[in-house]
Amino acid sequence: MVYYLILCKSLTHAQRTALALERSGIPAHLQRAPRQITNRGCSHCVKISERSLTAALTALQRAGLAPTRLFITEGDGSYREVSL
Amino acid sequence: MIFLDSGATTLQKPRAVAEAVKNAILTAASPGRGSYPASARGADLVFHCRETAAELFHLPNPEQVVLTSSATHSLNIAIRSLARTGGRAVISGFEHNAVTRTLASVPGLTVDVAHGTLFHPEQLLKNFEKLLPGADFAVCCHVSNVFGYILPVQDISELCRAYHVPLIVDASQSAGVLPLDFVQLNAAFLAMPGHKGLYGPQGTGLLLCHEKAPAIPFMTGGTGSSSLEQQMPDFLPDRLEAGTHNVPGAAGLTAGMRFVMDKTPQTIGNHEKKLRKMLALQLAQNPNLEVYESPDPQLQTGVLSFRSKSQDPEEVGQKLGEKGICVRSGYHCAPLAHESAGTIETGTIRVSFSAFNHEKHVESLVKAIRTI
């Protein structure tokens, strides 16, 4: 399944991001970030489905939480950064 | 037992506070440290605490809410973030040792006191205005912990803005009993305990940080974020929150703040003021007592200090304690406030109310004072 990961600067920021999405009716799952998408060590990200992306970006923009880094899954289990 | 020392801590808490602490102890692990449900539960409880504080104090962003262990901890972070060797701070004449000792620990920092007698806000404002130009920062308590004197912090904040001086407000005695709007106040930092007017457990505190305020970590260590870097994260709240969170404390504090929000700070504050007025009226009839009440009721919260002309405050406090009435006596960790009010020779006996006190408590105290 293809999904996106929104990389967040902190756990609190990730919680705010997930909450803003849920309040907009967009399913979002907060999780620890895979090592491949961050070089700073432990981080958190929010997982959303491929079809939710456009609505998610709109909702986050509206909430003042526009993401700075976004990743998409590749078929081999790796992640590729998507330019925003 | 009649508890009248809520200026130190509110001993009587809403039942929901104890239940929240218990549930957190039984179910929550450390936030951000794992992918398992107990860690997520801990993260949710801490986030909920930040969100609730942001709602109560009108902060736009819960990331600006830093969880601390006390108001003293919060003040240490705030002062150390703004103080520099060779710098200058301006404070009111009613500050607590949490402020004055912390300032005294900064090498080469000059501290100017904006003096003003008790319940004279205009005098205080004039003296602040004289001292603010060129200062690095200012610190002012919202309410004197000794006298319940409500200082004009909004006016002081506006003066600080005019002179480009960052302000730290100590809301130890006002959070939960006076309305507080962080955006309107426009302070660099707002420090408060969680265990007084917010009815949380002891060992909790909050520091609300302006988004532009510099934040220098008071403690360094693990944050569960940016772990490969040896500097503390450059973002809030992680930058100021090293080590494991007090998750049960945060859960209890959330329940306490919910209690305050349900009743409203204004209602709680008015209830306490009413009791203070009733007490002051009774004590003023006793010629052996000096009672420190403001002629303007708008300038005082539900805290009242008095002293006896014939007995030491410690003696009075001891005798009341023996009768099951809990008050605080002495200097209340605020010698500067006693200097300003002219009570430095003796200290005072302080009565401080909470939402759980009622008129019968006042009557019992008055009766007990007559017999000692």
What attributes does this structure have?
heterodimer; A: 84 residues; alpha+beta; Alpha-Beta Plaits; 5 strands; 30% strand; B: 372 residues; alpha/beta; Aspartate Aminotransferase, domain 1; Aspartate Aminotransferase, domain 2; seven-stranded mixed β-sheet; four-stranded antiparallel β-sheet; 13 strands; 15% strand
**What is the total tally of β strands of chain B?**
13
| End-to-end Cα distance of chain B | 17 Å
Rounded to the nearest angstrom, the radius of gyration of chain A is 12 Å
CATH class of the largest domain in chain B: Alpha Beta
Query: So what's the CATH class of chain A?
Result: Alpha Beta
Largest interface: A-B, 16 and 22 residues
What does this structure look like?
The complex is a heterodimer of chains A (84) and B (372). Chain A has 84 residues and is of the alpha+beta class. Chain A has helices at residues 11-23, 53-62; strands spanning 3-8, 29-32, 44-49, 69-73, 79-82. Chain A has one domain: Alpha-Beta Plaits. Chain A has a 5-stranded antiparallel sheet. The longest helix of chain A is centred in the first third of the chain and has 13 residues, at 11-23. The two termini of chain A are 21 Å apart. In chain A, 38% of the residues are buried. Chain B is of the alpha/beta class and 372 residues long. In chain B, helix 1 (15-27) runs antiparallel to helix 8 (247-263) and helix 9 (265-283) packs parallel to helix 12 (359-371). Chains A and B meet through helix 1 and strand 2 of A and helix 2 of B.
Give the arrangement of secondary structure elements.
The complex is a heterodimer of chains A (84) and B (372).
Chain A: E1 3-8, H1 11-23, E2 29-32, E3 44-49, H2 53-62, E4 69-73, E5 79-82
Antiparallel strand pairs in A: 1-3, 1-4, 2-3, 4-5
Chain B: E1 2-3, H1 15-27, H2 37-56, E2 65-68, H3 71-82, E3 88-92, H4 97-104, E4 110-114, H5 121-131, E5 137-141, H6 153-162, E6 167-170, H7 182-185, E7 189-193, E8 205-209, H8 247-263, H9 265-283, E9 289-292, E10 303-308, H10 313-322, E11 325-326, E12 328-330, H11 335-341, E13 348-352, H12 359-371
Parallel strand pairs in B: 1-11, 3-4, 3-5, 5-6, 6-7
Antiparallel strand pairs in B: 2-8, 7-8, 9-10, 10-13, 12-13
Helix pairs in contact in B: 1-8, 2-8, 3-4, 9-12
